[in-house]
Amino acid sequence: MAEFAELEAQDGVRMSWNVWPGSKTEATKCVIPMAAIYTPLKQLPHVPVLPYGPLRCRSCRSPLNPFARADFVAKMWVCPLCFQRNHFPSNYEAVAEDSLPPELFPQYTTVEYAVPGERAFPPVFVFVVDTCILEEELGHLKAALNQAIGLLPERAMVGFITFGTHVHVHEIGFAHIPKSYVFKGSTDVSKDQILDYLNFFGNRSKPPPGVVAGVKDGLSAQSIGRFLLPASDCEFALNLVLEELQKDPWPVQSDQRAARCTGTALNVAANLLGACVPGTGARIMAFIGGPSTEGPGTIVSKDLSEPIRSHKDVDKDAAPYYPKAVKYYEGLAKQLVNQGHVLDVFACALDQVGLAEIKVAVEKTGGLVVLAESFGHSVFKESFKRVFAANDYDLGLSFNGIFEVNCSKDVKIHGIIGPCASLERRGISCSDTVIGQGNTTAWKMCGLDKATSLCIFFDVIPKEVSGAVGQSNSNQFFFQFLTYYQHTSGEMRLRATTLSRRWVDGPESIEELVAGFDQEAAAVIMARLASFKMESEDEFDAIRWLDRSLIRLSSRFGDYRKDDTSSFSFSPRFAIFPQFIFHLRRSQFIQVFNNSPDETAYFRMILNRENVSNSVVMIQPSLISYSFNAPPEPALLDVAAIGADRILLLDAYFTVVIFHGMTIAQWRNAGFQNQPEHQAFALLLQAPRDDADAILKERFPAPRLVVCDQHGSQARFLLAKLNPSATYNSDMGPPPGGDIIFTDDVSFKIFMDHLQKLAVQS
C-alpha cells in the first residue's frame, strides 16, 4: 500500500479502485463503490502558490492543468475533461515547450491560486456558554476560555453569549460595566426581533424585507462593534465578563433538570452573525454541559423521572422530542450554510446533551466537535487548546469554502459523504442515484481545516450512453477537484487538484483491477457508507450488508477451485480487507449497543471528516508490544498478544490504552523502577508513555488516555478491541500469563472459515 500513500502525499487523494472497469456492469461486479477520499487542505509542501487567477476552459470552466494538450505554435490548449480547444490569453504569450507556466508542469497536479487584492473580513468567533453547570465545571470552562482569548489572532472579531433559563447577549463594546440583553429561553426568536431588541438600527430605517443587513448594508460598524470586537480591543472586557460569570441563578428542584435553552441560544447566535457579518468566515463555538430542556431543540423534559432517549427509543419512534429537535436543527443548519457560518460543539457532561440532534448542523457547516465527561477533563482542555494553537500541530482553520468536482464525460457523481452541504448546482455530471449529498457538482464547506476529508462517490456511465455524449477512444479519464476558500492568512485561495486514472476491459482486466485496489481506502469508504445507510435507511441491517458485500468480493476476486474451501486464497492486495471488515462489524460505528445516540453521533461525525490513515485506526486499532526480549514491535490485535511480562500500547483513535501485564504491574507496584540497578525496567515503563504522549499531542480531538493493569477494571478498554481467539468457551485455556475474553463473538479464524466456505460455493 506504499504506492497509494505516495499518491496521497502528492495530491491528498486515496481511491478504492485506481484502475476502473470499462462498463457499468463490470463496475457493479466490483462490489466496492468507485470512490475517492480527498483532503482539500492537506499540507503538501511541494504545492506552488501562484499569485494570479486560474486560466479556465471556456466550456467546462476547468482550470489549466498538466493533462491539457498544448499547441505552442497556435497558442492553444485542449481541455482533457471536455476536449474544448481554448486560446492562451496575452499574458501567456511567452508559453513554449521550454517555458511552461507552473500549471503545465507534470509534477504540479495540485496547485493553489492566491488572487491578488482578494482579502476577506477577519474571522469571527462567538462563544456560546452554558451556565447551567456546577460551579466547579464553570471554573474549568472559564479558565479554558481565558486561555483561548489570549491565543486568538489580534484581528479576529469576538462575541460572547451565555445561556441557561434565558439567553444573555453580552455587549462587550460597552466598556464601563458588564451589560447584556436578555431573551426568553422558551420562545423561538426571529432575526427581526433580535435586531429590534438589540437596537441595531437606532434611529435609521431598516433595510427592506429580503435584504441582508451587514457591514455593507443597513448596519453601521458602530452597531456591530457593540457585540463583535477585535480580540486585541476586547480582551479586558471579556475577562471582566468571565470573572463575574456565575452559575444560572434560577432554582432547580431536586426532582427536576435545569431549564437549559440550547436551541434558542444557538438561534440567537446564528441570527446575530447573520445580521452583522453575513457571508463572512465566522464560527459559533457552543460549550454545552447538559441536555436542552427549554424552548426549541428540547431533547427531554425537565422531569428527572423521564430518561433521555436511547437508540431503541429512536428506532421505535418512542422518543417524542427527537423528530422535532432534528427538524429544528436542520433549519438552523440551512440558515448557517446560507450565511457561510460554522457551528462547533464542545459537549462536556456525564449525561447526553443532544449531540445526536445537533449533528446535522455541525456536519453541514463543517464544524468541530468534542465530547468529554467534564470541562476539567484533558480531552476537552487539550482539544480546545489545539483549536487556537499556533504551532506545528495547529488545525489550520479555514472558512467559507466551496468545493466543486469536474470529471470526464464517462463519469458521473453520486454524491459526497462528509462535512459539507449541497449547493444544488445540478449539471450533466450528476448521477440519478444519490449517495449522501448528491444531485449537485458543488458543495458549501463553511468550515474546513488541514484534516477535513470528503468521500466522493462516482458512477460509471454505460458504454452505449457515454458514446452518445462523446466518449473519447482513450482509456484515460480525468477528475478535477476545486476548493475555493478563505485561508488562515485572510486571503482567498483556490486549490485545484487534477487526477488521471484509466479504464480496463476484457478477460485480462481482473488482474489490473486487483493491482489498483487500495484496501485501506476501501475499508474507510465502506465504513462511511454503512454509517450513512444506518442513519438514512429504515430497518437497514449493516452487518448483513457488510457480510454479503465481502462474500461477493471474495467470490469475484479470490483464487479458488469451486466447492474446495482449502483452495481459497487472496491476492496480497485483498489480504487485509477481510480483517478490516471483521473489526468494522465489531466497531462503535456499527454496534450501537452500550453507546448512547450522542456517542454514536460523535464517533460517526469524526469518521466522516478524517483521512484514510486516521479512519483505519478507528476501524482497526493499532497495537504495539514492549518487552525486555525485543524492541517495541507491532502486535496482532488478538487476545494472544497479552503477556504477563509485556506492556501493550493500544491506539483506538478515541482512546489510547497503556496496558501492563500482571508481572510488570507487580514489579511497578514494588517500586523496582526507582532502583538504580533496574534502570532498564524504568525505561521499559517510560517507552509506551512517550509514544502515547506523541499520539496525544498531534491528534484532534485529543484521545482519552487509559493506564491499566491486567485483570483490572479498566482493562476492558483493551479487551473490547481484541480478536477473541480465546474465550470462556475455548477448549484450551489461556497460556501462562495470558488472558481470555468473556464474549460470545466469533473469532477472526471462524469468520474467515465461514467466508471461504460461502465464497467458493457453486
Automatic annotation (TrEMBL):
What keywords would UniProt list here?
Answer: Cytoplasm, Cytoplasmic vesicle, Endoplasmic reticulum, ER-Golgi transport, Membrane, Metal-binding, Protein transport, Transport, Zinc
Q: What does this protein do?
A: Component of the coat protein complex II (COPII) which promotes the formation of transport vesicles from the endoplasmic reticulum (ER). The coat has two main functions, the physical deformation of the endoplasmic reticulum membrane into vesicles and the selection of cargo molecules.
> Residue ranges of the Zinc finger Sec23/Sec24-type domain?
54-92
- How is the protein disposed in the membrane? Peripheral membrane protein
Query: Cellular component per GO?
Result: COPII vesicle coat; endoplasmic reticulum exit site; endoplasmic reticulum membrane
The record's section on CDD domains has: Sec23_C
Q: What organism is the protein native to?
A: Wollemia nobilis
UniProt-recorded name of the protein: Protein transport protein SEC23
Location of this chain's protein in the cell: Cytoplasmic vesicle, COPII-coated vesicle membrane; Endoplasmic reticulum membrane
Q: Any idea where the Sec23/Sec24 helical domain is? A: 518-616
Keyword Magnesium included in the entry's annotation: no
Main location as per UniProt: membrane
Domain Gelsolin-like residue range list: 631-718
| Domain called Sec23/Sec24 beta-sandwich: residue spans | 399-504
Q: What is the lineage of its organism?
A: Eukaryota, Viridiplantae, Streptophyta, Embryophyta, Tracheophyta
Gene3D superfamilies in alphabetical order: beta-sandwich domain of Sec23/24, Sec23/Sec24 helical domain, Severin, von Willebrand factor, type A domain, Zn-finger domain of Sec23/24
The record's annotation in InterPro entries points to: ADF-H/Gelsolin-like_dom_sf, Beta-sandwich_Sec23_24, Gelsolin-like_dom, Gelsolin-like_dom_sf, Sec23, Sec23/24_helical_dom, Sec23/24_helical_dom_sf, Sec23/24_trunk_dom
Q: Does the keyword Isomerase apply?
A: no
Q: Boundaries of each Sec23/Sec24 trunk domain copy?
A: 122-388
Q: Which family does it belong to?
A: Belongs to the SEC23/SEC24 family. SEC23 subfamily.
Q: Name one GO molecular function term.
A: GTPase activator activity
Tell me a GO biological process for this protein: intracellular protein transport
